[in-house]
Amino acid sequence: MRVLYATSEAAPLIKTGGLADVSGALPAALREIGLDCRILIPGYPVVIEKLQATTTVAEFSNLFFNDATGISARLLECRMPGSDTPLYVIDAPEAFTRIGGPYQDANGVDYPDNAQRFSLLSQVAARLASPDSPLDWRPDVLHCNDWQTGLAPAYLRLAGCLTPTVMTVHNLAYQGIFPPDMLSRLNLPASCFGVEGVEYYGNLSFLKAGLYYANHITTVSPTYAEEIQHPQLGMGMQGLLASRRHQLSGILNGIDTGDWNPSSDLHLPCEYHVRAPSGKKRCKRKLQEELGLEAQADAPLFGMIARMAHQKGMDLVLAVADGIVDRGGQIALLGTGDKSIEAAVRELVARHPGKVAALIGYDEGLSHRIEAGSDIFLMPSLFEPCGLNQMYSLRYGSVPIVHATGGLRDTVEDEVTGFVFHEPTPHALWLAVERAFDLYSQKPAWKKMMAAGMNRDFSWEKSALTYQALYQSLLSTTG
Ligand code: ADP
Q: Which pLDDT belongs to residue 411?
């Protein structure tokens, strides 16, 4: 079975969040079980510079980009670095050569032409999945991810092509919303601008397009698939999602167990394992040293790695942080994002030198060392489609404290592998923190909980088999 996996980011080429981890790992896991899955990604400069042995396999001359003229693009083919997954890269400098990230400039401002840029990605994805593809290789299924590829199912359907499409929602909060006058500039007919189409409260939404036109919708955990059908977490899409509930399923993400393995992780000062856990103590001491925390072996160290966004429950953490320090704990934070949250974190660090440390920025190596060096991991997200860090934490013996939402609820078992609280309030988080402090002081019970988490299996194989079954069911119903 051939699958084209269209995505706007994929680790290790380009990453802003969990989508990149999934895009880096799932296609490889699908290939492991025998599918011919290939990735399609935009050629941002950081992507192009990491590619090796590329060949140009197609040229597109008339893609829609702005009013006046079509844009041309080359399609490059190569392999994902460090794996054998085939990769198609859209080389279109006018769209993708920018100083800054994939979506925003260096000041964190969205590029003004993001609609055109990601329409381009969607146009190429649709073209490759259609009978007039310039490639010999045609996918049986087109798998789209998040709003950046949401127009692809629309382009395909509107062109009358029946190739089955899957739209995966990694986070419903990002919807790709643009003014309605974009419609004609993106080669979308006025007839699709309605409730039954791409319209979303008077605007055009790329994500809505994907949710409406795709044959099947998935999201990244069973609980989130249920939650998004209701107003509280449906972000305005709940009506559509509930109406499509028979074509909506939640498939839990896996984690890359090669990259995230405490017994072979090159980012760590030493290795450890569930049957030989003593190296974790050294990882903790080294982390304290690295971050300027006091070298206290017995102080429970709370780690947190997150985009500093309201979604991640940083407000809750800030509300309980003084209490954690008062009870003898330490905190190590890593993240970047919302400037007001970053400022509040800096104030917290200034109040508790040697007890609270934060690195405001993005640091892959440190994220591994925090997972290894902390005793407890904080993940009080207000909502969380799947979440990866709680799974990394379980694997690294850093006991997670999580809010019972989305994938957090599906991966952490209260009092067995971690602590789960139900109301997203400082008080409820604090009660969970107190439970963690209490258990931490009972060493055998603590070790048992750590081991229970470290023994959980979050490898991609199970998810890959579920996606395979889904693709097969789509092929049998559409074809
Ligand atoms: P989201 O996709 O909402 O950001 P996830 O938990 O699904 O959240 O995935 C986040 C990924 O990004 C994880 O791999 C996490 O370790 C990583 N990450 C987030 N912020 C940072 C940071 N500041 N430095 C390093 N890695 C980070």
A: 98
**Site residues for ligand 1, CB cut-off 6 Å:** 17-18, 21, 171, 305-307, 334-336, 362-364, 367, 386-389
Radius of gyration of the chain (CA): 23
CA of 334, closest atom in ligand 1: 23
pLDDT at 118 over 80: yes
Q: What is the DSSP string of 232-284?
A: HHHTT-HHHHHHTGGGEEE------TTTS-TTT-TTSSS--BTTBTTHHHHHH
Q: How confident is the model at residue 67 (pLDDT cuts 50, 70, 90)?
A: low
Residues 147-156 have pLDDT tens digits of: 999 999 999 9
* pTM attached to this predicted model: 0.92
Whether the domain at 2-254+461-478 and the domain at 279-454 fall into the same CATH topology:
yes
The edge-to-edge listing of strands for the beta sheet with 199-200 is 177-178, 203-205, 199-200
**Distance from C-alpha of 122 to C-alpha of 176, rounded to nearest angstrom:** 13
Pick the CATH number of 279-454 from 3.40.50.720, 3.40.50.2000, 3.40.50.10260, 3.40.920.10: 3.40.50.2000
